[in-house]
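Predict the 3D structure for this chain.
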Amino acid sequence: MFKFWSIIFSFAHRSVSFYQGVIVTPFILYSFIRPLQDALLFRKVLIERFKVEENDIHMFINEDALKSDLENGLGYLFHSLSEKDRLVFYYVGHGFHNGTTNYLSTYDTHINNISDTAVSLRKILLDPLLNSKCKSGLVFIDACAQSFKNETERALITDLNNEDFLLFKSEHPHFATFLSCQPGQSSYSCHELEHGIWTYYLDKALSGEETEALKSDKYITDRTLSDYLAKNVSVYAKNKHDFEQNPKAILDSNCENVIVEI
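Done. Predicted structure below.
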């Protein structure tokens, strides 16, 4: 039986006119365009489906979620993780690769100095996990670099690269990574859904509302979730808005892991 903790960050970015929010719970949520709506939606899933206690969900708002907070303030969480804990990292916002490693934007990321004012995904998540006792978890990233480029850095900023995730999976085969789109694509929000398209369908699946996301009518697994998101996000984006958005998952090819029992 896994134990879960939660921390929520929600903030408006001052430099680049977009909005974000974060959950850590090991559950970590960043949300752009509709920060509180997305944060509360995922928080509801944590409480109702994953049975996370409300007292274990801690919230950090706006200027509390700075680059330095994420780089230096989460060490206690990873240090306290045990083999009986499951960590889920969920990010929605702007992510990019600077030619060396993957980065995520924060409250104080600056459009004129993106690389130096964002946080390294390896530094805040992957490396601390490798040094922790936690061996099971999920990484959800709803991000792209398409609208997060500055002319002075255009040659340096590209979409998130799979290499970090593949290296991490080789060390932790029971972690699954879900990405909202393929490199070169954008991750879209939808006014009708009041959320990002990928986030909306992720919530529907994890809430147990969609039978096609179930295995044996009882379990949501990493593979059933991957197949469900790949089909429904791409179909909705294309049919409703003529968008090209095709989710991607990086899973262990040798096994199928249960995410939650319905």
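The CA atoms of residues 41 and 203 lie 7 Å apart.
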